[in-house]
Design brief:
CATH architecture of the largest domain: 3-Layer(aba) Sandwich
CATH class of the largest domain: Alpha Beta
CATH topology of the largest domain: Aminopeptidase
Strand order of the largest sheet: 3-5-4-6-9-7-8-10-16-15-12
Largest sheet: 11 strands, mixed
Distance between the termini: 48 Å
Radius of gyration: 21 Å
Number of helices: 11
Bound molecules: zinc ion
Structural class: alpha+beta
Shape: globular
Number of strands: 20
Strand content: 25-35%
Length: 404
Amino acid sequence: MITKDKTTVYSKPLKESIAIDRMMFKFEGNDSAPTMVFFGGVHGNETAGVFALREALGQIEQDKIAIHGSIYAIAGNLKALEKGQRFIDTDLNRMWTLHQINALKQKTTLNVEEQEQLEIYRLLEDILSSKEGPVYFTDLHTTSSKTLPFITINDAMINRKFSLMFPVPIVLGIEEYLEGPLLSYINELGYVSLGFESGQHYQKNAVLNSIAFINLALVFSGIVKQDDVPDYEKYKDYLTKQSKNISNIFEVIYLHNLEENESFEMQLGYKSFEPIKKGNVLALSNNKEIASKYNARIFMPLYQKKGKEGFFIIRKINPFFLKLSQVLRHCNAENFLTVFPGITWNDTNQNTLKVNTVIAKYFAKPIFHLLGYRSKRVNQNYLILNNREKVSRTQIYKNEFWNK
Ligand SMILES: [Zn+2]
């Protein structure tokens, strides 16, 4: 039998090294009970999730807490984790398009991250092939700037409802700006999937926030009983405090994408979620100042060399629109859309809309967002919109208490 070498991962804030396998933790219960799949270290310099998974799941094991279902903890980019860098050849969290996954299966030579992706893909296939109960995915990350802990989701109702259980802010719509994050792929398979950004890469609270989040996620999914987690209330209070009592839903309204060879430097001192005003200088791009066009909040400003997103801008969503979108989706309001000129179905299953933005210019993106669509511009004249609700496996979650 071949035994694979373990990967050594170092935590700067904890000043500690651990040796891990790809599958860091596995407990398999009844296939009709809930399953939680955690990812940590999909970016190799983001070790907080890896350390938190080891600590939190190790504690559950040590305390012999009953597990009602299955738990898997998967380490992401092993090669990059070993080196403590975001990635080696390509960003493992930008490779999960159907096109790339299909190509991957045909390839004979793989770069470092393609090898990692293939191994993770096979694990996912294995896990999902047997499960009949609700399946949850959470992906643990950290950011280069200081930040409150927050959840990112694709805005399907199942994601929104499950996320609202956690006492942290929720940010919608990042996936419209990114190509190929792991969770977007899993969302397209119809499962609940949450990204959790726990803090700045090298701060200890990023580990502590993740430990609290992991425990709450296991309780909210029903895999672990609330009464069996002695520190449940402590975890909840801790995350509430770390989030400064902000638990609203925000949406991304702008991304400054970095061009090839662009020299980019954030102004020092911006923290994610910090309010900004129109005209505030945010960054220098090729030695020119970039000023904010919005009164809103800065989000995930880039303070490291690797990465293609300079900064995002987010805005709080009015609770009225959140409620409205829930009602509209519940009554399948999108079925009326194709009576308007310039809007047609893009496929026979009526999952995707094709919108001619020249003809249908009266329809703004927010209307599609309300109805649960995510948009991708294919060219100057066309938007392709995927309906997140239609692919959601709503049935498998219908009896879960958070979904009532
Ligand atoms: Zn990350």
